[in-house]
Amino acid sequence: MKSHLPIRPELREWILSTTRAGHSVEAVLKLMQETGYDPRQSRSIVATVLNMPISALDPNTLPTKTPGRRTRHPEPPQMEIDGHTVHIGLSMESPALRVLNDFLSADECIALIEQATPRLQRAKTVDSSGKQQIDARRTSEGMFFTTGETPLIKRIEQRIASMLSIPVDHGEGLQVLHYLPGQQYEPHYDWFNPEQPGFAAITAQGGQRIASLVMYLNTPDAGGGTAFPEVGVTVTARRGAAVYFAYDTGDEASLHAGLPVQKGEKWIATKWLRERPFQKNSR
Ligand SMILES: O=C(O)CCC(=O)C(=O)O
Ligand SMILES: [Fe+2]
What we know:
With about 280 residues, the chain is α+β, with helices and mostly antiparallel strands.
């Protein structure tokens, strides 16, 4: 796949001048990866700029592969994790997506809401310089727990790590979001755009995001599902259920949205996973 993302003129110029100066494409890709571009995106950008087929940049023929970790997709029909059974109600391959029917118990959902409530603030998004900011596209209130902050958070993080076969330290702090009627999260990707100016800063710790787990802490009276508009799928928000989706550092089919709550309220907890260990003090 060639790059559909806008390529910054300075990057385009740098790729052209470096290859014209006699440096190999492998060397260009290696330098891009050292400055924080992920291997797949850098191949796609270089192929676009040099107008060559992406197959000519086959990673198996390049010596510069530095793959991060990937999550293991949960296997239907069910998984036993530390004495807790999780049932997989739906599986898709593109995007890689699983609906988990009973990831959290009702008691865990209630306790998470209780622990998060006093700390809620208007939810923020990460801007192009890597800073958090208020964003009109995201009208909910939210908060972050730090990794392992309470025994409950620790237990949930361990469950996620075991289910997805990825160490706990690849996870960002668990985020809880609260939506009221009319509030939503407009369509977005959870992975970071390698072309945005703050990409290197955002991915300096932990690298790219590779997968997300959105856990539903209550059942809204109407609305509030998680929609995947590229594939026409909406996951119902239901207490204790969760949706897992993986995007391997950048899959456009993983576009998703928190649909407006129509009646009642909606509570979720989101865990984002990185390809390398993530340190929370980079936020
Ligand atoms: O509210 C939802 O259903 C989706 C939340 C989401 O996309 C996120 O937290 O990244
Ligand atoms: Fe998201």
